[in-house]
Amino acid sequence: MLSLSRSRKRVSRVIPLILLCFALIVWSSSLTASDTEVEADRALQRPVVAHETGPIQTAVDARTGVVSEIQTDILWKPFCDKSSSDFTAESFQEYIDNRRAAIGFDSPLSEEKSSSDRGLNIVFYTDASVPAAAVTALADVEAYLESLFDDPITVGIKIRFVTDLPGGTLGGTGVYTLTTPLAWSTARSNFIDDMDWDDFIHDYLPVTTVPVRYNGGSSTITNENRLALAWSNYGALGNFISGYSGETDFNANISWDYDPSNGVSGYCFKSVATHEFGHALGFMSQAEQWYDPPSDLFALDLFRFQRTDGTGDYNPDTYEEFQTAPRLVDYNVPNDNHNSNIFLSDGSDIEYRMADGYPEQASHFRPGVYALMDPYASPGQTMYPDYMKTPDLRMFDAIGWDYWTSIPDADADGIPDRDDNCQFAYNPSQEDYDSDTFGDSCDNCIFIANPDQEDTDGDTVGDSCDNCIDTPNPGQEDSDGDDIGDACDWICGDADGSGDVDIDDVVYLVAYIFSGGPAPVPLESGDANCSGGVDIDDVVYLVAYIFSGGPPPCDTDNNGVPDC
Predict the structure, then answer these.
(1) Structural domains for the chain
(2) Cβ-Cβ contacts under 8 Å for 171 (sequence gap 6 or more)
(3) pTM for this one?
(4) 316: which of 155, 234, 322, 445 fits an S-S bond (Cβ 3.0–4.6 Å)?
(5) How far apart are CA 128 and CA 414, in angstroms?
(6) CA atoms of 389 and 272, how far apart (whole Å)
(7) What is the pLDDT of residue 377?
(8) How far apart, in Å, are the Cα atoms of 289 and each of 177, 223, 365, 448?
């Protein structure tokens, strides 16, 4: 991360996060300025960011079970209103350093946790500075985020309210990141292994390395072999994480409105908080940096391209081009020409304009995209009640989060189809007596394991438990209790059911045909000549068999193989 307090030397990685905090300037001329002019002008605008070394935290690879102790960095950025902050890069770094010296990493905190019946579990840790109204609002934000994503991880975020932030600053958020980026081969495998029912584009992520233009004014392409990740985003990709994913300080001197349901006076706390926690979930871009040598990109940058084709066909038009087109990860170059592209399985190209780093931070959509991760907040503004909009949800889904509410549940039993052992039968308890992965509500053999669910006669009773495999008998009637269903427990020609074929069967058929006597059970047992019906021809056929050595019942060609 970069330490901006003393020099422009790149120490590690800096990711400007949160809402825009540059000094308010007149920037209308920038829209027509050349990239050269922008390059010179932006050098005067140092980003207000801060870096500190985070704690070592434990993660478990869900695929292999390997336990790792991982060093983290914390990347801080103040978040502000549409006006300005009095912070400079140096003063903000000093604020963060003093803050850590005062509270350390292990200061006492209360755990504000509600139970989650889904995958994601958000846990806020607060101290005595947090007002009761904020605690209530945070519980609502927690429930809202948990309702969106079902990744089975816990995301811990520390919350404080402070009084020593300068004017124009709403607060500051620090995002825990991996100090050492993942090898791209590992990261790509994580993305693919984590794909859920609606994911498609991840199969078309670059294979060996990621082509990146770290200099938007040049055609030079870097083949990047690693990916930086927020700690929580690392968890969303199938790694069970512990510890914290972020820290947020809110300015206690700001007029916060904790309940936007009745209108907003001042700043909507829930909107701002959800936005900030969105950064902690990994909505962050390396395009904030313009220090040399440029390197590394975050998950969000995998979908970041030049908005126009330019001289190098830089904007992908198909998912095949998505795999090979170079990503654009540069601060403000080309000016106002940055895009995110996501391709759906039907080939649709979903594009959103992105902020390019100046004047709005690149870890946001460009102003004009109706989304929570817009770079600005202002008094009276709220995104209540559905804080994240379609662009937000699509980008979070793209970077690895599993968007819960988009998951089909055909039987409305609260179990997503992808996890439901009976997709079309309501069974919220998911009972499966024989443990064959088919729930009792839809298993065609409840008490006998049959994961293939074979049903030869199509009577809805599986072959593993059907007492007449080749003869449909959904009721499974078995009058004599011999485990052979009545539908197939008979001898061809044995019209009276005695167990033998003899003259009594001839008499039985004559009575049935001419005198209204009882029908053979089953009727097919009287069809000795396989004609499909029972009539005088069957009587003649049986007489020939019994007295003249004719072919056996149901074997008209006398080859030992039944014909019906």
Answers:
(1) 28-401 (no CATH), 490-564 (1.10.1330.10)
(2) 78, 79, 162, 165, 248, 249, 250, 251, 254, 272, 276
(3) 0.69
(4) 322
(5) 38
(6) 14
(7) 85
(8) 16, 18, 17, 62
